[in-house]
Amino acid sequence: MRFILRAVLLLVLLALVLSLPSFASSYYLGLVIKIMIYALFALSLQLLVGCTGLVSLGHSAFFGIAAYFVTLLSPESGAGNMLWLLPGAMLAAMGYAVVTGALALRTKGIYFIMVTLAFAQMAYYVFHDTALGGGTDGIYLYFRPEIRLGDWVVLNIDNQFVFYVFTLACLLLTWAFLALLMRSRFGAALTGIRVNEQRMRAAGFSTFKYKLIAYVIGCGLAGVAGFLYAAKDGYVNPELLAWEQSGLVLLMVILGGMGRLWGAVLGAVALTLLQELFQSHALFGEFASRWHLTFGLAIIALVAVLPQGLAGLPEQLRNRRRSKSISPASAQ
């Protein structure tokens, strides 16, 4: 029964998202596209943090590298071909992940966090301090990529509605891929590594290999999010690779609920909407210019009230009701 209710709820949400462009303004449609891109980005980190137990503070490097790849290799006089730009962006992110992951995964705990942060900062300063991508000024993408077969344009995402549907399709495919991955033998091994890596190693599993593959896959999916971000705004700068971006997506995973794929999506929705809310001059007036303060206080409050994240809220409420129903019985 619970499975049927979840399926119905998912279908209703999907129908609502698909019908959104028919009544939403251009601004709100752009906001939903931004949320979906960050949800995909958070899903890529959920594979590492919630499913494998690898807390990374350098995930923004792969997001930014993919965005720069698309922008630098797209022609200035016309749209680039997505058939090679999207896979190329993923491979660029995955290539950097292979090199950095092979070194970072030899460490654990806080040392792994600091090493991933160091590698991300290295990539950040490559784009920040050199003329490769326009330095601190960044670089523009003048035409969104399109899918072409010869002279035939199969898909043009320059239209906002088409780009909205394309982003939604990327998010759903990423979700489906990760759901199947975590239900496979490989996913079970990742769960075992997260719970007790030493026991998995004693059972004969090469945990380093499993963690490296998961790391590369997660970084490749972050590359998809980077591709979409560059195509959405048409502009990238070094701040996409900064540690603040990694911290933001890590907060999405924590707030949404670690270990649950839909928790990453909930976290992306919640944090993006909170940012928009506290930056609203209509609601907060001049205080909106200091939105970081209210945003930070809201996150602290939410994490304190929801230790299992937004995805764990139903279970938290059920446990609270169960404890209240047991207390009178035990008193008698």
From TrEMBL:
Q: Does the keyword Transmembrane apply?
A: yes
The record's listing under Pfam families reads: BPD_transp_2
- Keyword Transmembrane found: yes
Citing just one GO molecular function, the answer is:
branched-chain amino acid transmembrane transporter activity
Which PANTHER family does the record match to this protein? Answer: ABC TRANSPORTER ATP-BINDING PROTEIN, HIGH-AFFINITY BRANCHED-CHAIN AMINO ACID TRANSPORT SYSTEM PERMEASE
Task: Report the GO terms under cellular component.
Answer: plasma membrane
Official protein name in the record: Amino acid/amide ABC transporter membrane protein 2 (HAAT family)
How is it placed in the membrane, per its record? Multi-pass membrane protein
- Sorted alphabetically, which InterPro entries does this protein's record hold? ABC_transp_permease, LivM-like
- Keywords carried by this UniProt record: Cell membrane, Membrane, Transmembrane, Transmembrane helix
Q: Where in the cell is it found?
A: Cell membrane
Which parts pass through the membrane? 36-55, 62-78, 84-105, 110-127, 161-181, 208-229, 249-274, 295-313
